[in-house]
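@channel sequence for tomorrow's demo:
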Amino acid sequence: MDSGFRRNDDDLTDALPAVGAACGERGPGVSLPLACLVSSGLLLSFGYKGRVLVADLGYVALLLSLALGLYSVPAAIIGARRDRPDLVISARNGLLAITLLLTFAAACLWYLLLTNSFQVKYVAGFSSRDLSLNYLFASLWAGNEGSLLWLAWALSLFGAVAVLLHWRRDRALMPYIIATIAVVELFFISMMTFTANPFHLLPFVPPDGRGLNPLLETRWMVIHPPAQMTGFISWTIPFAFAVGALASGRLGNEWIDSVRKWAIVAWLVTGTGLLLGSAWAYGVLGWGGYWGWDPVENSALMPWLVGTAFVHSIIIQKRRGMLKVWNMVLIIAAFGLSMLGTFLDRSGVLSSVHSFASDSFAPLYLGFILGSVGVSAALLVYRLPMLRSENTLESALSREAAFLMNNLLFIAVAFATFWGTLFPIVSEAMRGVKVTVGAPFFSQVNGPLFLGLVALMGVAPLISWRKATPSYLARNLAVPLGATLLGAGALLLLGITKPVAVVAVCACILVVGVIAQEWTRGTALRRLTFAESWPLAFARLVMSNRPRYGGYIVHLGIVLVALGVVGSSFYQLTTDATLSKGGEMRLGTYRLRYDGNSDKLTGSKLVTTATLTVYDGKTTKPIDTLVAQRSIDFRWDQPVSEVALRSTPLEDLYVLLADVDDAGKASFRVFVNPLVLWIWVGGVIVLLGGVVALWPGRETGTPS
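structure tokens (generated this afternoon):
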């Protein structure tokens, strides 16, 4: 059996340079794709035949990408095994060529969308003549075929950057990194090539397209879906580094330095997608909130949670040589969950306001996820002897133990979310009845776990490595705990008495107190040592240890998000009212008067607007005018609401127009959501802290 494998391997080794020679001197580099791009540019013309040609060229680019992927995977692996640098270089060039070809394919699809090329099935399904330019542009990711192209293209860009930046530094890992990225690329490209072709031509030319689902005609459509899908696919890069370390046996700290940066990049992009999605849900979907524990929302949250655990956990491996197996498990899980997220988006197996229609390739998708996770898990088991910890946990009262508890809480939240999301599928398979798991389950299970995470953020920075004494911890906690007790008293005086809310806010005060104490001590020490001003000393303190102080900025952002969640969850007010013109309703300190409505027919849409004057309940002076909208697109028979919002640092007044009858009576649902603004402010601060932690310093330099 072994000799047979070697003969086949040798045959393939001999054959690959021949294939490479047919495509360029050193393999399928940029020469073939550039030739295709230049020649296709000369052939582009306007009119029906020109647009058909563009569609054909886009599909040819996919076929060429498929061929290059099929070449690059074995070339990279055999080049590493046989010590053939020329094959590895050829595989790298193949991966870079795929980036060029997919860029061309994406440009072709955008051209077809922008020129109303309705003979292309995808264009007819998600574009129309009355769509504005920004929505025509966003139509690329409105359906299965286009979103698959976006995923493949985004991955190719990430892969090209990773390979070019780390080509010299991580040379031993590079063949396996190239092969891993190429395998994932092959999956998406093959899906487009064989089952979901974005360039499929219709046998006729419709006079117009169907256009976007009205729920997608919002500014968030332009930025949220590409951010979220890019977040999903970005976890492929740290996963590729992990596979490269396992396959090559280079399991020291070198790969950790590289993978940390890419994990933070993936964490930042995924977090951006989550933040934008929450803002979309809040302003457009009319839930009255920003998070509904929808299956697709959950699918984006799970890899972010596991990735957060990984970013924390690799600190222990770097500093103490511990948790090596655990870190591998986390990054494999983050990748698997991110692929699951792309699957749930487009499989239709779960009911979601976000998901695409059901499609026939769900079994293939699941097979790929299970296969890729299975192969990486097998590699992990094979390398277990090389992943022994260099040290052991010496005390339950240590920073290592705090990080481990942090990891367990993140994984517990991720698992509870995973189980609640997939339970409808499990129940239907076992009992024939699809049981829906609602928001109360997630809130009741995950709420206490998130509260534990916030409290741990306050204690962990004050615990020393290896072993801390209770007296040492008590001394460091004295000032933050004193501030927390004062804060608790202030809350009670203000009438905030709900136990869970008080505990949660006190946990937030503790975190802020600890961070303020750490920053004050560090800044004071720099002033004493270098005779710097307070602002300069603080700025240089942060720059001197970006990962640490960037983490503190992230924690401050989490505190603001937590305060917004607590305020809007425990103290939200809501009411429903049906009013005639001139009628009034009250909610909290607000009085709202309905001033009338108007209708406007725009294309296939009937837009109804209702105007309300807002008064402070204590005075007769108006403080604002709100206009809520409700539209219906007759092509889709889909009503869409546009929320009227008055936002202040203390609370949001949120008005949803539910209906207007023939007599002019309007039905409203009104919410008062305390502190919601701080969720968005906190989210931005979280992302800013991640950027600070990622930003290269003089001591680390720029990755090469």
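heads up for whoever presents: The radius of gyration is 28 Å.
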